[in-house]
Amino acid sequence: MSIDTSEFLDVLMEDSLEALNEMETSLLDLDHGGDDAELINTIFRGAHSIKGGSGMLGLDEIASFTHLMETLLDEVREGKRTIDMLLIGLLLECVDALRGMFDALKDQTENDQALVASLVERLQAVLENREPVLAAAPTPASEPEPEPELQELQELPELQEVIAEPEPIPATPVDVIESAPAAIIDLPEEPVHVPVVEPVLATPASPSGNGNGWAIQFIPDHDVFVSGQDPQRFIQQLATLGRIQVTCDINVMPGFERLNPELCFLAWDIELETDVDQDQVRQIFAPVANQCELIIESLSDYNAMAGADADQAADAQGQDAISYLKEAVMGGPVTQVPAEAMPELEIPEPAPASEPVVEPAELFQPEVAMAEPVSVEAEPEPPVMPVVEEKPVEVKSVEPAPVVNEQSAVVAEKPVAAVAAADALPKEAESKPTPPPAPTRKKETKKSAAAKRGSQSEAGSIRVSTQKIDALINMAGELVITQAMLAQLGEKLEESGLQDLEQLRDGLAQLERNSRELQDAVMSIRMLPISFAFSRFPRMIRDLNTKMNKKVELVTSGEQTELDKTVMEKIGDPLVHLVRNGFDHGIEMPADRLKAGKPETGTIELNAYHQGGNIVIEVVDDGKGLDREKIVAKARERGLIGEDEQVPDDQALELIFEPGFSTAEQVSDLSGRGVGMDVVRRNIRDLGGHIEVASEVGVGSTFTIRLPLTLAILDGQLVTVGDETFIVPLISIVESLQIRPELLNTVGGRTELYQLRDEYIPVVKLSELFDIKTDHMSEYGQGLLVVVEGDGKKIGLKVDDLLGQQQAFIKSLETNYKPVTGISGATILGDGTVSLILDAGAIVRLSGHSKG
Amino acid sequence: MTSSMQNIEDTNLGMGVSAGEDQYLTFILAQEEYGVDILRVQEIKGWSKTTPIPNTPDYIKGVMNLRGSIVPIIDLRERFGLEPLEYGPMTVVIVLSVQSEDRERLMGVVVDAVSDVYNVKPEDLKPAPDLGDRLRSEFVKGLATVDEKLVIVVDIDSLLNSDELSLMNTATA
Question: Which residues of chain A are within 8 Å of residue B173 when distances are taken between CB atoms?
């Protein structure tokens, strides 16, 4: 039996689309130079959760696609890759492609395979070109790179100690430098220390004479571990005797594939500044006397001998370390070397002295990456950057084998030290202190990201299915109805003169308040901040900017203004249209803007605010504005107005909302096809709102949309016609008046006009329109006229009587029936009967007066 | 979703009653007995005043408030072209769930009286012959004989999505 995954699929789809939106927003923020770490984390999380979810449901295509994104993002997150415009662009395309995949999934259609394939290719190209990309990158990215590098190291717990250690180091070399300037030249190789040994350096060293001490070569046998000896212990012991510099020699270290973790391939060159004699030093190595090669020389002799070759020697070491690393990377995770064992591996030849001197020529050439530091390194004060840049390269090449991460990172530290060593002490002194701040900073950002995440989940929203909310809204509506019923009852009781009415009324008042509050609370569940509708625009503007070579900035305000979800869903498209229009027709090309004395970058503003139970959304552009004369001319050309018809200025602009109107001289793929503004206006009217335009040539245009906050409730006037009660939305009522028969005129035998002050308005008899039997059919004298405005026209609705005003809870006729022309919905009155809500605009059209 | 739930209900009912039988609620319309799939019956209630919908045929009596839902009410007598009856306290409305395209609609039908519930095996449901103008045969799912009485089993989805009730056909003035 197969498990039905469709339910999960829906959830995944919803989650994923949300995640995609979040990713897109974050990418755009990055684009605008937002806070990198947190944003990248957000994007990464999005990709990660989509990957997880889709993988679980067997959506392999999506999973593998997001996996690539995730890998890429992970590298960015860990600082191994800087995020730039190109990358953001690519990721945005990936987000779009994912949306496409989910859409295809939802509609059960074929996904655009070619697009996905090409993106996969590009992602892979970026991922695989890691080295060239980064090798090329360091110059511009030199600043951010070293830092992330260290952050990355910091993340490996094993290494924390290693990296934290450098702090004490400066003290030592600096001391040395200060006390023995002459020694500087001699010391270059000294800092080539094994990280693990570094703690030793922290031990306070007894001040001793400069030349006094011993140069020790400690080369344990390969099988030294077998006897249970730990070479590190001897070095630590040595450190108690005085100031110590330890260099690890890994020349004999085999490649990873040949590496036997139980054998020791490391050797150490130790310089010990101390007053103790040679025997004491030998004493320390006594336990391994038979298992090692131990050469102890006087430090001053050693320096004299080694000094000349020191530079190259150090190089060679670094070189070796790197080639070793290369090998290690190639070998991948085959051998699992315990991290602690690493430092102790390898037997050193007195590397500085012999090998390097012989080999440098051969070594330098193949290792292009090394060439720079090497050449530079002859100078006493080599530039800092090349060396520092070296690190990322190395670490990155190690990265792909995550299993060896720990030890490889340890290893990675070595070349760093080795290379640094090549640059002589002063360099060491100034470059080393940098690491500590970086890890700390990283920790902080991590923490704040975590904190942010926490607060997000706290302040976050619960997704409630619309069905449930609708049920709640229904219940709340019922409550209001009950209250209305009780209120009626109360009035009846009052008339019959019953006692304790006061109490009943108090109770009812309370019930009313409670039920209203409940209703408000429940309604608010449906309310969403308009940022949901605004969120698509930054991306749109970004894409349009690229496409049209314009410079437009989007400014939004009032994103937190709430409105009903249904309204939100329906206002999206009109808004897109307005913004596109503003972009396309409004904002001029940058050159034209400059010519007109405006800033090069145009601005499109989206503002939202509440105003008297409505939400007002403004789309403002500072473009060239609407040219009234052009509009009028165009309208004439299109036959929207008569040849000689004069149009007042304020009405001229309204012409753009007429069907088939377009002033764009050139039709672009964005707008100008003449199917725009009329649809916008119709959509907005369908929502019970209206749109206005104001514009000044050369300054810009403002479109103001006014919408009801919700489609669920409206304030209505109860009117009766015959036995039927209807509700007229208060928003469409202009005024209500008693009909004075002398002001009624008949035109063309049938159409009746009522003289309302200085204008004539057509009269619509609801009884006729809706075919309702009424006693007042022809007796106007007894009727009332409700003047309503719909579709920009006024008409008078002839009704029999006006009842009270009531907040009507809109019920859809469509749910169980279907749309009815002239009726926008129904509501339930206090007595439980259904009353229909009139749609003023539709009635205007229905009555055939819409053309005036 | 809904259909799968109904399948489950079907199975349960089938086991509870007797395997392979469908249950039909029957009602009387001008001395004839009609049946509807009992699983489509939401509730049976007495007649109460409806609110007429403007510009609709006479057989659409209007809409009624069914616990917050606006439900259209159809007079089956008038729909079938029978002589309308005066509504009284005994007039019954059967609220049915109708599958209309991709959604469900609740609709009430006014009938003379509710009769009985019968179990009918699918194989006992005989296709209806051409019934002439009055009752289009597409509205009839089949004819069943129960206790020597003829029961006309109505296809409510086809009946209550026809003509003016069709989602496609919007009322015009």
Answer: 769, 821-822, 846
CB atoms within 10 A of CB B173: 16
**pLDDT for A437-479, tens place per residue?**
434 343 434 344 444 333 333 344 566 767 777 777 877 777 7
Orientation of helix A146-155 relative to helix A437-459, angle to 10°: 70
How far apart are alpha carbons A758 and A761 in whole angstroms? 10
Would you state the structure tokens that stand for residue B170, as one six-digit string? 């919007």
Q: Give CA–CA dist A801/A767, Å, rounded.
A: 12
CB neighbours (10 Å) of residue A623? 28
CA A803 centroid distance within chain: 53
Answer yes or no: do A813 and B106 touch at CB < 8 A: no
The model carries a pTM of: 0.49
Question: How does A510-541 read in b/e, with b if 16+ C-beta sit within 10 Å?
Answer: ebbeebeeebeebbeebbbbbbbbbbbbbbeb
CA atoms within 13 A on the CB side of A717: 21
Can you state the percent helix, strand and coil of chain B, rounding each to 5? 20, 45, 35
How is residue A204 written in tokens? 């306070």
Phi, psi of A776 (to 5 degrees): -95, 15
Q: What is the pLDDT, as a whole number, of residue A158?
A: 41
Taking the C-alpha atoms of residue A589 and residue A623, their distance in angstroms, rounded to an integer, is 9
Among B2, B8, B53, B169, most A C-beta atoms within 10 A, so best to mutate, is: B53
Among B173, B73, B105, smallest CA distance to A848 is for B173
CA A782 to chain centre: 65
Identify the burial level of A496 via C-beta atoms within 10 angstroms of its C-beta, where 0-12 means exposed, 13-18 middle and 19 or more buried.
exposed
Q: Report chain A residues touching chain B, CB-CB < 8 A.
A: 474, 477-478, 724, 769-772, 811-813, 815-823, 826, 828, 832-836, 846
Q: ipTM exceeding 0.95?
A: no
By the CB < 8 Å criterion, does B54 face chain A?
A: yes
- Model pLDDT, residue B88: 81
Would you say B152 and B35 are in contact if contact means Cβ atoms under 8 Å apart?
Answer: yes
Exposure pattern of A544-558 as b/e (b: 16+ CB <10 Å)?
A: bbeebebebbbebeb
Q: Using CA atoms, how far apart are residues A346 and A363, in angstroms rounded to an integer? A: 20
As a whole number, mean pLDDT of residues A413-427 equals 41
Residues A622 and B98: their CA atoms lie apart, in Å, by 54
Please tell me the distance from the alpha carbon of residue A384 to that of residue A374, in angstroms, as a whole number: 13
Closest CA to B63 of A800, A716, A769, A832: A832
Contact B54 A823 (CB under 8 A): yes
Type of residue found at A556: T
Q: Please state, in angstroms and rounded to a whole number, the distance separating the CA atoms of residues B146 and B125.
A: 10
Contacts of B73 in chain A (CB under 8 A): none
B64 and A CB contact within 8 Å:
yes
Q: What is the DSSP letter of A343?
A: G
DSSP H or E stretch at residue A789? strand A784-790
Residue A39's SS3 state is: helix
Distance CA A189, CA A583 (A): 64
